[in-house]
Amino acid sequence: MKHKFPETTRKPAVPDCAGLACSRCGNTNPALFGSDHGIPYCRRCVAFSRLDAGAQPQIPVLKEPAWEGQIHLDFALTPFQQQASDQILDWLKQGESVFCYAACGSGKTEITFASIDWFLRHRQKVCFAISRRQVVLEIGARLQKAFPGLDVVCVCEGYTSVTDGDLIVCTTHQLYRYPGAFDLLILDELDAFPYRGNALLEHLAAKACRGVKLMLSATPDEVSLSEIEAGRLKVARLFRRPHGQPLPEPRFYLRPVWLQIFGLLWQLHRMAPRQVLVFVPRIRDGNRLSRLLGCPCIHSQSPDKDDIMRRFSGKEYRVLVSTTLLERGITVPSVQVIVLRADHPVFTMASLVQIFGRAGRSFDDPKGECLCFAASLSDSMRQSADLLHQMNESVSFV
Amino acid sequence: MLLDDDCLCPECRKRVQELKQTYRIEGRFVHVLYVYNEFMEQLFFQYKEDRDIALAPLFLSGQSRLIRRLRGCRIAALASWPEKTLQRGFDPLTEILRAWNLEADRPWHKTRSFKQSENDPGTRKEVGHLIACTPDTTRQRRPGRLLILDDVLTTGATLDALFSLCPDAQAEALVLAAHPLWLKTHKKDRQSHPVFFR
């Protein structure tokens, strides 16, 4: 937000902010400091509560975790998951931060459990942080089930009355509450909005961790990749899904936009009665398509998102049109995926990989289809297909 | 318009819903500048609760005609609860006005701490019992018609209380932002006032 004072107003005394640094977010840009009657304060992180320049953020007094139970899983880890889990724990014990490069649907959350268990048993503080609020609540529930009797606390918008427990699950925004607090900080989907490329959130995450970090993603960003290549970050790879089948690789249909609709209609007919997720680049595309198909559309502005998802999961709808809202974090058994206008810039390589990752996740239907309609083959489309192919090539299948 | 110097960037300005509408409520004129939409709510929260005093100028930014009108009025506002002002470090309305070389009298005060947003609509209506006149024999009466200033209008209970305590029967009110529900309820009270926002 631009901020300047016209001649008709009284300009506040703005002290010289050169050389100032915010001890919470690391801001050193003088333009991002405000002045309260001569007292400079950081405006970059003011949304987390105001911190005057020179002041230190309040260090939280957190309870020491108490965990002596046993991990509970509904199913055993596959040998490959176990191998990744063991490798990750070994590195973390050695004080090394780790990047877990795991394909969508490979069960990467479960392979963190052994590490969480070890740190908790040694009375060390653990946090599981993720970008999206809805996923915080889901992950919190899964962790509570896996660690019965453990005080698992979810901290996110709407859930901030209790901010400490044996194990904290939070959005990356909430990490501002915990400077220097965690011996193990698990960062899930760090390539997703809003964390990706957000220097402020990255700084908060760095400050929250006093020990080691475990990062999880199916689509590592450039920074993580360069850290891995430089040997500064250990990497554990898991490209095999628990059911042992290959990751679905996309098929591309290059058509003019107006012909893509006909192609879509044909594919929807062919795929019946299986459920289909149709991804479109923009909300208005979704609204138009949903009117044409007579099915619901879900996007960031939908007032009834939870209801739509519940009904789709309950198979009340066969087809659901969506923007990139559903590209991550949802699991609908036996769903097929179609992307319209896949060459649109909103569909980045990471976005397409995540979208394709919605298909083929269940044991009952491990070979889901991913189709893309586009006017031309974009770099993102090509890179996403190449990546999935490389992942499949790197493992052997049943 | 060409001389208006807006300290909001174009993107933020698009998110602000300017209203500039006058309502006649039980014989009193209430002038509303903005709709209290989600963006305005975020701005007020960042300003008042996150104490981002740098936002003070933007609530009247781009409103040069209104500011000139305010210079000819005797502005009065409800004083904030003293502990809250101490905690915050500044008074929100004072700073909004000060950014534009304006001042307000504080002829009324709350007799106890009461935050509208922390109470249900039924309880909010009781705020009238918590407001009293502040005796100040030394206050110089500025010339001009009395204009009661408030930042956010939700149920209208605070404004009703201030009007009832106001000795000037011709007093009008300016609120920076009004809640959509209040606007909907008072749609029938909309007036075309000859000069206020022109």
Features:
heterodimer, A: 398 residues, alpha/beta, Rossmann fold, 3 domains, 6-stranded parallel β-sheet, disordered N terminus, B: 198 residues, 8-stranded mixed β-sheet, 29% helix
Description:
The complex is a heterodimer of chains A (398) and B (198). Chain A is an alpha/beta fold. In chain A, 29% of the residues lie in helices and 18% in strands. Chain A has a seven-stranded parallel sheet with strand order 5-6-4-7-8-3-9. In chain A, strand 1 (33-36) and strand 2 form a beta hairpin. The model of chain A is unreliable at 1-13 (pLDDT under 50). Chain B contains eight helices and eight strands; from the N terminus they run H-E-E-H-H-E-H-H-E-H-E-E-H-E-H-E. Chain B has helices spanning 10-15, 38-48, 64-71, 82-88, 92-98, 121-124, 157-165, 180-185, and strands spanning 18-25, 28-35, 74-79, 105-110, 131-133, 146-153, 172-178, 190-191. An eight-stranded mixed sheet of chain B has the order 5-4-3-6-7-2-1-8. The interface between A and B is medium-sized, with 21 and 22 residues.
Brief summary of the model shown:
The complex is a heterodimer of chains A (398) and B (198). Chain A is an alpha/beta fold.
Helix-strand blueprint:
The complex is a heterodimer of chains A (398) and B (198).
Chain A: E1 33-36, E2 39-42, H1 79-93, E3 98-102, H2 113-121, E4 126-130, H3 133-146, E5 152-155, E6 167-171, E7 182-188, H4 199-208, E8 209-217, H5 222-229, E9 234-238, E10 251-254, H6 257-271, E11 275-279, H7 283-293, E12 297-298, H8 305-313, E13 319-322, E14 335-339, H9 349-356, E15 370-374, H10 379-393
Parallel strand pairs in A: 3-8, 3-9, 4-6, 4-7, 5-6, 7-8, 10-15, 11-13, 11-14, 12-13, 14-15
Antiparallel strand pairs in A: 1-2
Helix pairs in contact in A: 1-2, 9-10
Chain B: H1 10-15, E1 18-25, E2 28-35, H2 38-48, H3 64-71, E3 74-79, H4 82-88, H5 92-98, E4 105-110, H6 121-124, E5 131-133, E6 146-153, H7 157-165, E7 172-178, H8 180-185, E8 190-191
Parallel strand pairs in B: 2-7, 3-4, 3-6, 6-7
Antiparallel strand pairs in B: 1-2, 1-8, 4-5
